[in-house]
Amino acid sequence: MSQFISVFDMLKIGVGPSSSHTLGPWRAAQAWVKKLREENLLENLDTIQIHLYGSLSLTGKGHATDVAILLGLSEADPEYIPIEDVAIIVDRINTQQEIYFKGGKIVAFPRNSITFNRDFLPFHSNGMRFIGFADGKEISNETYFSIGGGFIVQEDDNLEEEIEINKKNFPYPINRAIQLEEYCEKENLQISDIVLKNELELRSADEIDFELNRIWETMLECMYIGCHTEGKLPGGLNVKRRAFDTHTKLIKDATYSNQKDWITAIRSNEVKFREILKWVSCFALSVNEVNAALGRVVTAPTNGSAGVIPAVLMYYLVIENHEADFNHIKKFLLVAGEIGSIFKKNATISAAMGGCQAEIGVSSAMAAAALTELLGGTPAQCLSAAEIAMEHHLGLTCDPIGGLVQVPCIERNSMGAIKAIHAAEIALETNPKESLVHLDKVIDTMWETAKDMNKNYKETSEGGLAVTVRMVDC
């Protein structure tokens, strides 16, 4: 893959519970409506049929794929839609059995308009087809594929038309981790410096700071909401939210009224090793409980793994460095985004393609590298941390019970965050020159493992815990 992948492609704001099964289909529906408008077909449209294939079909209900498509067809934006409007729009469509397009166009949308097909399309396991009719005649037929992290493509897309990674377009073209390492050594720069110089080719410094701060504020808000919301998660498993109880015990009698004061309150508490583990787990669990409840999160690099990076970054802010400011947050997100992009270019970030190693494993590697830079590690040590984190996620399967991003997915974010911190500490005590495994090698291994993995363990809910623990047992 030779196109440039920005940090803002890897860290996207959206709605849960899944980047590949919710955000991707949502964006695909939006793209289809946009194409209908561009080709002047929307005005005559009177019937819509949508077909979901493969993993989108097998776990689509649990991942709210059908809900996402309704919202996409309604032209709502997942990045900005008020969360309370999600249920309102979906309930209206299901009740009235009509889609309302911007501009006043209304098209009938019976409840059987979305068909779940167990067949897999050959191009990718997350396929969906949008078909439009006018007076019984087909006027549009478009197939999209959700390839992980909210990215969508069509089979005939020419990826070479995307911004190419070359010296003409970017000062530091990066495809493999070894290239990034060589740039850092040659220029005597940190990873975040190299990444920033590339990003400046697309956006101004002020724009980069604004967007990175918006990403962090979304992460922080997500953790705050998750830590202050009790009850059970929707979907039928009756999973109890755990972040609330854990947070209540950890925060003790501290008083605060907003997210900034909350950080100060956490910093004021004396923490021991076990409490640190609990805090990190609490942060990770809180994000993915919000995600499972169709809340707003940041794909990092996916929704299912959205808790790892904010949990590790929050750990740095409230445990490691009480003087940390936006500059530290900025560096962390820049490094994390670049590591994620290297995985995407050379392997996958889709659980439907590679199992959970492609989500939790990648997010843990991203967080480990980013934390290592903030802790004073060299670029080579940052890459070593990413390698260590992924190495110990190799082969991790995706087996969500009931097709819901709850069990074992939420807990895995906690484990991924703890592993990231541990990987950073190991890397800081390691001479990368003596390491036998480079990050590029573990990425290649991850991809080969993904290709060898039985499809039942790739987000189909047809293997692992999803089979041994049935919905009826819950």
What is this structure, in a nutshell?
The chain has 474 residues and is α+β, with helices and mostly antiparallel strands. 50% of the residues lie in helices and 11% in strands.
Percentage of β-strand residues: 5-15%
Average the pLDDT over all residues and give the rounded result: 95
Order of helices and strands: HEHEHHHEEEEEEHHHHHHEHHHHHHHH
Anisotropy-based shape:
globular
Distance between the termini: 43 Å
Secondary-structure map with pairings?
Blueprint: H1 7-10, E1 12-15, H2 19-38, E2 47-54, H3 55-58, H4 65-73, H5 83-96, E3 98-100, E4 106-108, E5 114-117, E6 126-134, E7 137-148, E8 151-153, H6 177-187, H7 191-199, H8 205-227, H9 243-251, H10 259-267, H11 273-292, E9 296-299, H12 308-320, H13 326-346, H14 351-354, H15 360-374, H16 379-391, H17 409-428, H18 439-452, H19 465-468
Parallel strand pairs: 2-5
Antiparallel strand pairs: 1-9, 2-6, 3-4, 6-7, 7-8
Helix pairs in contact: 2-4, 7-13, 8-11, 8-13, 9-11, 11-12, 11-17, 12-15, 12-17, 13-15, 15-16, 15-17, 16-17, 16-18
